[in-house]
Every structure is written in C-alpha cells, then in structure tokens.
C-alpha cells in the first residue's frame, strides 16, 4: 500500500503484509524478501511493526467507521431503487394487461369505426340523392308556380270567356233556328222537287195528294188497273174542297172515280179502302142520282163542273178517269 502526502514535505510510506509479517520501506520499490527475515530478527524493527499494526488498526477502524454507513446507505438506496423498480415493473405489467385488454376493445372499436365509415358513406350517398330529389322538387315547384300563375291569368279571363260563351250560346241558338229553318226549307224544296217531278209526269198536286187525270178512256176496272200500275187507285173523295177540286179539274169530261158497289151486296165503298161516309157524300150526287138505271150502274163518275157532280153508271163503259196517290215525302 502507498500513502501519498503533501509533495515535498512528507515522503511516501510503503508497507507489505505477508503471513503476519509487516514490512515498511521508505522507497517505491520494496526490499527483497530475503531481507525480511533480517528485519524480524532485529529488535528495533518490532516497534516499527507495532506502529504499523496500530496504523493498520486505525485505518481499519476508520474504514469501518466511514465505509460501513456508506455501504449500508448504498444498500438501502439499492433496496429502495429495487422497490421502486419493482413498483414500476408491476405498473408496467398492469399497463401491459390493460393494453392487452384494451387491444381487444381497440379492434372492436376499429370494426365499429369501419362500420360507422360505411354507414357514413351510405348516409352521404343518401344525402346526395336527397339533394338531387330536392333540386328536382324545386324545379317542379317552380314549374307548378308558373302553371299556377298561368291558371290565375286564365281565371281572370273566365268572366270574359263566360260572356263570349253566352254570346256563343245565343249564336248557337240562332244557328239551331237557322238550321231548323234550313231543314224545313230543305224539306219544302224536296217536296217541291217531288211535286215538280210528278207534275212533269202529268200529275197534279192538291192538299197532300197527287192526281192523274187520264186523257184515255177505259172501263172502270181497266182504269183501276192502270192506276195500280202507277202506285195509286181511282180517287176517293173525303172533303168538300177535294170534291170541288176534282169537279173543277175534270173540266166537264166524264171521269171515273174510285166509288163502286162491285163485289159487295149493294153497298158503296172506296176502292182505296178509305171508309165511305154516306152522310157526308149525299150532297155530291147529281140530283136524282144514284138512280141505278137498268139495275146495272155499279160504278161512279164525275160528270159536271159542280159540287153535285156524281152519277152511277155501268162499269164497262169507257170513260176517262182520275188516279189518286198520297204524297209520301221521300227521305232526303
Ligand atoms: Ca145513274
């Protein structure tokens, strides 16, 4: 061991301990072991040994007094640090378990996050669709608004339109009347046309009937056959005006009419099936007629220009004759 003092004042002290032998020397290099036995043998050296031992004891005591508390303090510090470390390790373990626990939650949270993201995307697309729908609805609302404004304009025009409609209704009524008049005129024209057509064929029109005054002479039956061939019969007489018309138109030429007793038991009848009115026709006979001269006068003719113009004659005599045909308006 080497104890170093203040440089220049105290020289370094050197010593060795070897099997209960302590050697001291003043210089850096120790003396050779062969010299130790020499020292032990020397009495004055014992005091130095004692001094050395004393110094060793003092040094040991000093070391024990200084190092032990330091060592114990260090141990205590180590223990404290170890406890602190243990506490931290425990905390770290607890944190690890917490982290493990939380990692599952983090995964679940991640999954939830993805789901939420997907839902958000869906919601965004729905929002976009809704925006599109809202835009379309707005456009339709604007169109409806414009249409409504047009409806308002039309509503404002309704009174005027109603007046026009009333005028149109009045015009329609006039047109209907005109149409009716035109139809009547058309009927009359058609009737005139029919009459003219019949007149052009030699017939005369009177009070709804056509009459044909034949220029040729035929027996009563042949005359009737001729009339039938012209869609008519020998004429009947149903009124004073007709009787006056026939006697006047006969122009004092003897002409057969359609009254006969032939085919019956003495009774007069009209060949066109008009009911015979004996009371009304009494005044149409020439006074003294019918006399049934020779009991053979079964057919009637008009002989004179008078309301009393009828005479019964034999049916096979050839006279002129009068056919009668009701006027039936033809379809337009
Ligand atoms: Ca007669």
TrEMBL record:
Q: Name one GO cellular component term.
A: membrane
Pinpoint the C-type lectin domain residues: 206-324
Mainly resides where?
membrane
Please name the GO terms of the biological process aspect recorded for this protein, alphabetically: defense response to virus
The listed locations are: Membrane
Asked if the Swiss-Prot or TrEMBL record annotates the protein with the keyword tRNA-binding, the reply is no
Bilayer topology term: Single-pass membrane protein
Coiled-coil segments on the chain, per record: 127-188
GO MF annotation list: carbohydrate binding
- Please list every transmembrane segment annotated in the UniProt record, as residue ranges: 48-71
Q: Report whether Cell wall biogenesis/degradation shows up as a keyword of the record.
A: no
The record's InterPro entries line, in alphabetical order, gives:
C-type_lectin-like (IPR001304), C-type_lectin-like/link_sf (IPR016186), C-type_lectin/snaclec_domain (IPR050111), C-type_lectin_CS (IPR018378), CD209-like_CTLD (IPR033989), CTDL_fold (IPR016187)
| Top-level lineage group | Eukaryota
Question: Which UniProt keywords are listed?
Answer: Coiled coil, Disulfide bond, Lectin, Membrane, Transmembrane, Transmembrane helix
Pfam families assigned to the protein according to its UniProt record, in alphabetical order: Lectin_C
Against PANTHER family, the record matches this protein to: MANNOSE, PHOSPHOLIPASE, LECTIN RECEPTOR RELATED
Protein's recorded name: CD207 molecule
* Native source species: Otolemur garnettii
């Amino acid at each position: 061991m080497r104890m170093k003092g203040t440089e220049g004042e105290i020289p370094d002290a050197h010593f060795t301990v070897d099997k209960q032998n302590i050697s001291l020397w003043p210089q850096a290099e120790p003396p050779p072991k062969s010299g130790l036995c020499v020292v032990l043998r020397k009495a004055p050296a014992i005091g130095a040994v004692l001094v050395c031992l004393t110094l060793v004891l003092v040094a040991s005591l000093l070391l024990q007094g200084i190092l032990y508390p330091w060592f114990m303090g260090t141990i205590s510090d180590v223990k404290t640090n170890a406890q602190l470390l243990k506490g931290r390790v425990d905390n770290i373990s607890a944190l690890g378990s917490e982290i493990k626990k939380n990692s599952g939650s983090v995964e679940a949270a991640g999954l939830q996050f993805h789901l939420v993201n997907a839902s958000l995307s869906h919601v965004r697309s729905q929002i976009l669709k809704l925006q599109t729908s809202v835009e379309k609805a707005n456009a339709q609302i604007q169109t409806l608004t414009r249409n409504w404004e047009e409806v308002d304009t039309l509503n404002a025009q309704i009174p005027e339109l109603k007046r026009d409609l009333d005028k149109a209704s009045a015009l329609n009524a006039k047109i209907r009347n005109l149409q009716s008049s035109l139809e009547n005129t058309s009927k009359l024209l058609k009737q005139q046309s029919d009459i003219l057509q019949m007149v052009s064929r030699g017939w005369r029109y009177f009070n709804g009937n056509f009459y044909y005054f034949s220029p040729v002479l035929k027996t009563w039956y042949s005359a009737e056959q001729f009339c039938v061939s012209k869609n008519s019969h020998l004429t009947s007489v149903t009124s004073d005006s007709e009787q006056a018309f026939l006697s006047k138109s006969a122009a004092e030429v003897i002409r057969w009419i359609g009254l006969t007793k032939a085919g019956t038991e003495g009774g007069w009848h009209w060949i066109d099936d008009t009911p015979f009115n004996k009371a009304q026709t009494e005044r149409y006979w020439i006074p003294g007629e019918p006399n049934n001269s020779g009991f053979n006068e079964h057919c009637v003719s008009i002989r004179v220009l008078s309301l009393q113009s009828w005479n019964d004659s034999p049916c096979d005599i050839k006279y002129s004759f009068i056919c009668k045909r009701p006027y039936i308006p033809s379809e337009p």
